[in-house]
Specification:
The complex is a heterodimer of chains A (221) and B (538). Chain A is mainly alpha-helical and 221 residues long. Chain A has a domain at 99-218: Cytochrome Bc1 Complex, Chain D, domain 2 (Orthogonal Bundle), CATH 1.10.760. Chain A is 51% helix and 7% strand. Chain A has helices at residues 7-11, 25-45, 58-74, 82-95, 99-111, 135-144, 170-182, 193-203, 211-218; strands at 146-152, 155-161, 209-210. In chain A, helix 3 packs across helix 4 (82-95). Chain A is elongated and about 100 Å long. Chain B is mainly alpha-helical. Chain B folds into two domains: 73-228; 264-530, Cytochrome c oxidase-like, subunit I domain (Cytochrome C Oxidase, Chain A), CATH 1.20.210. In chain B, helix 1 (3-28) packs parallel to helix 10 and helix 8 runs antiparallel to helix 12 (369-391). The relative contact order of chain B is 0.10. Classes of the chains: A mainly alpha (221), B mainly alpha (538). Chains A and B meet through helix 1, helix 2 and helix 5 of A and helix 1, helix 2, helix 3, helix 8 and helix 9 of B. Chain A: This is Cytochrome c.
């Protein structure tokens, strides 16, 4: 069959052009809504922290936990004033000292949700003699950290446990310690808020412990 | 929020918003009325109302039997002939990189569920294969094909011949050398280590030079233009060709952005590659092809204006939503979220224009390969962009971030939107450059169905599984390995889809080469999905 040159150019429609349809009202309305939303979204952000991540300061969490313990001591909450109610609400969400959730946030990455740790790297908490030893030993390890070699449940570990004294309030420490001492077959007594306070009064600010120091100070687990 | 930063933030947002409002005000006051008379200079007399490219019935064919029609035909012919060498160089290269990129994509996909696959060689580890995939399809396939199509369209849009086409050919050679060296460097482990910016900066110089050699003929052509009114496609194409070099140059400056600022610049660039480079190219092509094939004007000039300027005003701050929760100032993230959501303005206006023009002509999708590919691409642009605006919101991002959901979204944009439109453009352009018709309609069909089914299952499976993965990752007591195992079916489905798409690309590449070699029978009619009525009658 015979082919014509330029046939593709012949058969095509003209170069495109634009029609004159007006902008739909709905589009204009949507633009208006978005601008209002955008301004509102900025306004909502005013006063929010400038940096990402967990922006609660140590002071805030500590203050909240003190408030909470004070409140607990009094028994009933004084909710007549709005500000008190709000503070209590905030305090509740951060420090009701839910040991399980504190564990899953701060501890489970290394010690695993199962409490079994990772062989050779992170010691298990389940059936650990250290976890079920005197409350002071567990408080010491979690609050001030631990470095150097340690034998746990028959295996040797060489690592560094960070200190959580700056991150967790006394109430949170006691909650998470009580939690790990009662999970995964562990059955040691709960760690009271009071023993945390006593420990704090006795050792104040200090560096990480070693297993040897723990044995010397508190006796073998 | 300190006063300085609040002021900066408000100024950025205000500038864009005031710009947009000014535009709307001007439109309302007829400042932009180009008048039908001006438009008619593009729309040659006697041609209006005729229907489309391939399916245009022979009896109503435009035969060039009056002076104006002959002139229009001549202009088109001259434009196509002038850009022939340059366009074919860029397009052929892009097809090669599409194949290479597909193979590497498939390899990375297999490694996701079969980690030992090809793990013995350091050159084929996931950390190198995946960036090769990304860079080959972005800078090899999408960018080269996009530039090729732009080189074809711009002389047509300006009704003139392409000036200095040989510079563009030269640019393609340098660009290809850059790709070979860059992908080689990644394979050897010499990567810059930032996603989308993996090519070492020394090699990036080649892309700057190659791109600049391409910009020269386009600028010369624009200066020689024979039309007064610039059609919307030319705004997008020219803008993309101005924006991309600036973005690429700034983001690749060595030793300039250390640490967290590097991350911010990294994602500012990576998202702008999508929004200010491939998006305008894709939209520009769709704005040309849809009315061209249908033979009717795009419905609204006003919407074109709002769509284009809203993209220009709001897009460049969008990228930081990739690092929500990252170590950068929260106000920057907030700015980026607001701008991401504002992006629904250009998306909706462009959607009304594209789909509104299609309204009543959907039957044509059965025939025209170009229209089918381009319209599906345009539709997926709407879907992917609205989805993207949603993903930028903190409440949704907290679920979708770091999951396969994002991967599905990225492929919806780069593949179902952009690559489909490019495929459609290939089917339109090649017969006009080679003076030959596509040899086999079956291969076009096969290509279409392979890639369509591939990307459909790809996006659906990864979107669903990614969402579930995101919810599971937020459940703290679920062990990580369980979540990984949960995604395995979707990862395997992805390999299957990757295989389908790669096969589709092989079919396409084979057909493309056959087209270049003018295989098959000489035909007078365009190759459509269905035999045209005339052929059936015969």
């Amino acid at each position: 069959m015979k082919q014509h040159d330029q046939r593709a150019q012949y058969r095509e429609a003209p170069e495109p052009e634009e029609g004159n349809a007006a902008t739909p009202k709905a589009v204009l309305l949507w633009i208006f809504i978005l601008i209002v939303w955008g301004v509102g979204y900025y306004i909502l952000q005013i006063g929010k922290p400038m940096q990402g991540g967990d922006s609660r300061s140590v002071q805030v969490t500590t203050a909240q936990s003190t408030q909470l313990s004070a409140k607990d001591a009094q028994g009933a909450a004084q909710t007549s004033e709005k500000s008190v109610a709000q503070q209590a609400e905030q305090a509740d969400s951060t420090v009701t000292a839910d040991g399980a959730s504190i564990y899953s946030i701060h501890c489970s990455a290394c010690h695993q949700p199962t409490g079994l740790g990772i062989p050779g790297a992170f010691p298990p908490l389940a059936n650990s003699e250290w976890v079920q030893a005197k409350p002071e030993i567990t408080i010491a390890i979690v609050r001030d950290g631990l470095v150097g070699p340690i034998e746990v449940a028959g295996s040797n570990y060489q690592g560094a446990m960070p200190n959580f004294g700056g991150k967790l309030s006394d109430a949170e420490l006691s909650a998470v310690l009580s939690f790990i001492r009662s999970q995964w077959g562990n059955s040691a007594a709960a760690v009271s808020l009071q023993s945390v306070s006593e420990y704090k009064a006795r050792f104040a600010d200090r560096n990480s412990w070693t297993a040897e120091e723990l044995k010397e100070t508190f006796g073998a687990p | 929020m300190t006063p300085t930063i609040a002021v900066l933030l408000i100024i950025t947002f205000l500038l864009s918003t005031v710009g947009l409002l000014l535009l709307i005000w001007s439109i309302a006051n007829n400042q932009f009325s180009h008048g039908q008379a001006a438009a008619r200079t593009i729309f040659s007399p006697g041609e209006e109302g005729h229907s489309e490219d391939p399916a245009r019935p022979a009896e109503t064919a435009f035969t060039g039997d009056n002076l104006d029609q002959t002139e229009a035909l001549e202009a088109r012919w001259i434009a196509d002939q002038s850009s022939r060498a340059a366009v074919l160089t860029w397009l052929s290269s892009s097809v090669f990189w599409l194949l290479l990129g597909s193979v590497f994509g498939l390899m990375s996909s297999i490694k996701m569920h079969l980690p030992e696959f090809l793990a013995a060689s350091e050159f084929l580890t996931f950390g190198r294969v995946r960036p090769v995939h990304l860079n080959a399809v972005t800078y090899g396939w999408a960018s080269m094909a996009g530039i090729g199509v732009a080189l074809f369209l711009i002389p047509r849009l300006f009704k003139t011949s392409l000036a200095g086409g040989k510079y563009a050919v030269c640019g393609a050679l340098i660009w290809n050398i850059g790709l070979i060296l860059g992908l080689g460097a990644i394979t050897l482990g010499l990567s810059d280590g930032e996603e989308w910016l993996e090519f070492p900066w020394q090699i990036d110089v080649l892309f700057v030079v190659g791109g600049a050699l391409c910009a020269v003929p386009l600028l010369l052509t624009a200066a020689n233009r024979q039309v007064e009114h610039l059609y919307v496609s030319s705004w997008y194409l020219m803008a993309a060709l101005v924006w991309f070099p600036i973005l690429f140059f700034i983001a690749n400056l060595p030793f300039t952005f250390p640490g967290a600022s590097g991350a911010a610049v990294n994602w500012w660039f990576a998202h702008n590659v999508l929004g200010l480079w491939v998006t305008p190219i894709g939209i520009g092509i769709a704005y040309y092809m849809i009315p061209k094939i249908l033979g009717k004007p795009i419905i609204s000039y006003q919407l074109s204006l709002i769509g284009f300027w809203a993209l220009a005003l709001f897009y460049s701050q969008v990228g930081i939503h990739h690092i929500i929760g990252g170590p950068i100032p929260t106000w920057l993230v907030t700015l980026s979220i607001v701008h991401s959501v504002m992006m629904s303005i250009p998306v909706i206006t462009v959607a009304i224009n594209h789909h509104g023009t299609m309204m009543g002509n959907f039957g044509r999708l059965k025939d025209s390969p170009t229209l089918r590919f381009v319209w599906i691409g345009a539709l997926m642009y709407t879907v992917a962009s609205l989805q993207g605006s949603m993903e930028a919101l903190r409440s949704i991002n907290v679920i979708t971030h770091f999951t396969h959901y994002t991967v599905a979204h990225a492929h919806l944009g780069m593949y179902a939107f952009l690559s489909f439109i490019l495929f459609g453009a290939f089917y339109f352009i090649m017969p006009r450059l080679t003076n030959w018709e596509w040899p086999w309609r079956g291969l076009i069909s096969l290509h279409f169905w392979l890639v369509s089914v591939g990307i459909l299952i790809y996006v659906v499976s990864l979107t669903l599984s990614g969402w579930k993965q995101g919810l599971a990752l937020l459940t703290a007591d679920l062990p990580f390995m369980d979540i990984v195992r949960m995604t395995l079916p979707a990862l395997k489905a992805r390999t299957l889809c990757g295989l389908l798409m790669t096969l589709g690309h092989l079919v396409f590449a084979f057909h493309f080469v056959a087209m270049l070699m003018r295989r098959g029978k000489a035909k007078e009619q365009a190759t459509l999905f269905r035999p045209s009525t005339k052929e059936v009658a015969r």
